[in-house]
Write a structure and sequence with these properties.
Blueprint lengths: L1 H25 L2 E10 L2 E9 L4 E6 L21 E4 L3 H9 L9 E3 L8 E8 L4 E7 L6 H6 L5
Parallel strand pairs: 5-7
Antiparallel strand pairs: 1-2, 1-6, 2-3, 3-4, 6-7
Amino acid sequence: MKKVISLLMMMLVVLYIGACGKQEYSMDMKTISYETSSFGVISKATIIDLENGVIKEFYNNDFRKGGSPMSISEIEETEFDRYKIEDVQKFESRFKNSGFFKWKEKYVNENIMDGLQWSLNVEYRDGSSKNVYGSNSWPSNFDKVVSTLNRN
């Protein structure tokens, strides 16, 4: 009898741990934002509005000259190119399966002071978020995840 109870307890623990690990995957995403910058000036910004099925992209070809914008909030709405997401569910599914939710919070190469900084943030409908930042360092599947944000 003790073996049966022990086995049942272990199964419950395994099921609980498995459910906790997938919680973030099942949360309803509201927006995804991605930006790259150098010397604090944004070179590219992408905001994906999943509620309205829109991708907004901003490219700053003059970022090497310094100045602004230094945050997404400084970018005027008129400076974004807009694209409609044809299939929001497919887009979300592709992103959720990209490996992003296994990323650490920070990827920083302490040996390089200049270079490229990036951030990728997911905001959920309940107001919570997952935020990841990098400076001259990236997770191994970075390109795969970022490619899911393209409008194609």
